[in-house]
From TrEMBL, chain A:
<dbReference type="InterPro" id="IPR013563">
    <property type="entry name" value="Oligopep_ABC_C"/>
</dbReference>
<dbReference type="GO" id="GO:0005524">
    <property type="term" value="F:ATP binding"/>
</dbReference>
<dbReference type="InterPro" id="IPR003439">
    <property type="entry name" value="ABC_transporter-like_ATP-bd"/>
</dbReference>
<dbReference type="InterPro" id="IPR003593">
    <property type="entry name" value="AAA+_ATPase"/>
</dbReference>
<keyword id="KW-1003">Cell membrane</keyword>
<dbReference type="InterPro" id="IPR027417">
    <property type="entry name" value="P-loop_NTPase"/>
</dbReference>
<dbReference type="GO" id="GO:0015833">
    <property type="term" value="P:peptide transport"/>
</dbReference>
<protein>
    <submittedName>
        <fullName>ABC transporter ATP-binding protein</fullName>
    </submittedName>
</protein>
<feature type="domain" description="ABC transporter">
    <location>
        <begin position="283"/>
        <end position="524"/>
    </location>
</feature>
<comment type="similarity">
    <text>Belongs to the ABC transporter superfamily.</text>
</comment>
<keyword id="KW-0067">ATP-binding</keyword>
<keyword id="KW-0472">Membrane</keyword>
<dbReference type="InterPro" id="IPR017871">
    <property type="entry name" value="ABC_transporter-like_CS"/>
</dbReference>
<dbReference type="Pfam" id="PF00005">
    <property type="entry name" value="ABC_tran"/>
</dbReference>
<dbReference type="Pfam" id="PF08352">
    <property type="entry name" value="oligo_HPY"/>
</dbReference>
<keyword id="KW-0547">Nucleotide-binding</keyword>
<dbReference type="GO" id="GO:0005886">
    <property type="term" value="C:plasma membrane"/>
</dbReference>
Amino acid sequence: MSTVLRIENLRIETDGDTPRTLVDGVSLRVDRGESLGVVGESGSGKSLTVLAALGLLPVGTRVTGGRIVLDDRVLVDVEADVWAGERELRALRGRTAAMVFQDPMSSLDPLRAVGAQVASAVRVHAPRLGRRAARERAIELLTSVGVRDAADRAATRPHQWSGGMRQRAMIAMAIAHDPLLLIADEPTTALDVTVQAQVMDLLAEVRERTGSALVLITHDLGLVAENSDRLTVMHHGRVVETGATRAVLAAPAEDYTRRLMAAMPAEQERATPAVRTGEADALVADNIVVDYRVSGRKTPVRAVDGVSVRIMAGETVAVVGESGCGKSSLAKAVLGIQPASAGTVVVGGVPVRAELTGRSAAQRELAQIVFQDPYSALDPRLTVHELVAEPLRIRRAYNSAAVATLLADVGLDESYAKRLPGQLSGGQRQRVGIARALALRPKLLVLDEPVSALDVSIQAQVLTLLDTLQREHGLGYLFISHDLGVVRSIADRVIVMQHGRVVEEAPTAQIFSDPQHPFTRQLLAAVPRLDGPRRTARPAAA
Amino acid sequence: MLLFIARRLALAVTTVLAVVTIAFVLGRATGEPGALLLPDNATQADIQALNSSLGFDRPLLVQYLDTLVGLVTGDFGDSYRLRESALGLVLERVPATIELAFWAFVIGLALAVVAALTIQLTGSRVLRAIVGWAGALRQSVPDFFFALLLVLVFSVLLGALPSLGRTSYASLVLPVATLATGQFVMYLRLLDAALSEQAGQDYVRTAIAQGQRRSTVLFTRMLPNAIVPVLGMAGLNLGGLLGGTVVVEVVFAWPGLGKLLTDAVSQRDFPIVQAGLVFVALAFVIVNTAVDVLVRRIDTRTAAA
């Protein structure tokens, strides 16, 4: 069996006088028709390694050692001073090796019709093909990746396509020239779990047709388990472990691999609930309706359609569903950010008005929020201390000891107080976000995808912290998430939403062991698992 | 689209009305023109007689309504000083100003696009630095002084180009050069920043990863995306140019609208002020509407929103 891509001893450093090593002596190999999973957390160098193979390294980084051989052509050999030129690389890109990138929202040109973009991907390596023929081929390709009415949709622009459909278009472009190698860099991270399953199925299906090998770069071990023949685990720019996927996952030889696997959300519910009886309910929301007025439409769009939630003190209720199901709108209605057009909200035993402006300051203190993205949720110019002190200052309750206590509560010692958010890791920032939300002693915390921007090992730490804080303060959590694995390990009860309505509500154990609604079953089936069903294409005959 | 244009027209009417009202109030607040029009030795009675013959003894409301009626019928009255139709005087000067503004705008923008694309294509930091420094230098010199420098070099020292009036194409060169260099610097800054931002976008990486040439990606993908915000600025700016070439018109004795308007303001020649302002306001709204229509054609997302 011949090798499609061989990377030997690759070293990538940053430019400048004091270069930092980002990838250090990485070797990997992809054989014809096989599927290689490259797994690692952010900063492991997994994307850089593969981008280097096509000469696509971001500005400010460069290869300083090793060899890269693609389809028997030596593209880089630092010792022999061989460097493939732009022209040679251009001939390989999209034809020998094609890429599918992470974010289908930004990976397409917003101004050009999707069909035209696919057609131009076709014409790059078939310049003699006429415009009309290229357009027809584009429609053919879009149809082959499951875009319905491709001929009509081809003329529309990316903003009119859903995330999953855009990723299908990306795949259509990638397979335009039946490449030997498909490189998928976190291809489903931005997608809902059910859509993720569809996209991975599609990738397996097109590989069946084209016989392409696949490099799947991801942080998700479950995804790799289901979609790769072999596995390479990376950490801090080095390869930690390589081997057949099944074998590695069944008996990991290296400590880091074991830690990664252990950090995956446990497939069991939390043992002891922290619910406190005798205290006022953290939240009683009854029959909430949220309408959005859309310009140019007479009838408003109903995002939440009569949803009721009750959260006891110390209880975690998770709301799960796909994007657009209304779970975030529900959270906003509870907080008063997007006032409910009908229904009642009672927080910590206190009935409050629908709109935030109608709530007194004391009422607003009762419910606080932790945001999804710890990078944009903190003012980059305030120190950690100032960030946590801000809500106290607003309520004229500032004292520096209180801030220190809050920071200690979330596991940040005094040395962090003077730092800026830019000097913190993602997990540390999220701890600051939690400390800030706790500053005013709320009864209810709305956690809007609080860990989905974090690496798995960090996820586990933050979830443990949330659990500890809940027990200490008797907090009620409204936990918004699309990640069922995370939900399982922290929630006491799960509410499944679809199209603005609750389709199922049950204790966590019951949701996972005995789901009633077909949509719940669909959600559960789509979650990739270490021992899940295999989706990999059979290797092409050698 | 039709609805959009209709809405813009309604906006134009409101804008013109507001401009005329403000001009009327400010004009009346600065006093009556009789004293300025008559020789120094005129008696108080002469001044009052002139003011009343011009209608300044009527109640303010009547004067205002009179102005509005004039606005609708296109009759702004005669210039107090020149005894000619104010609208006629303004329209007579308009082509000269449009000529100046148009060429300054087109040349400045075109050169900026070429320069920005060259910087991106060559990836030359030296080129960007040079252009950046030159630009900062140009912007730190006021227009009138830069104009005088040009006159000094090209008219006085080299004797190559005329420094005054509007007589031939050659007389167009220096005033246009003064304005166009300023425009060039501004658009280059905007466009270079916008293109550099696009260069880091995922869709650019996607196109490169498909094997597209970097130059193709630059021309067909990055440029359209980068030009949209620049066009918005350009619209505001061209509108401003049409009414704001005053300094340059004065330096080069260019017979344009700017000079006519400044003279009219200092002499309380209200009919000309009113007619001129209405023209400038209309030009501003029309140019901006045209730019918005253009942007909507390039970027259909804005049309949907």
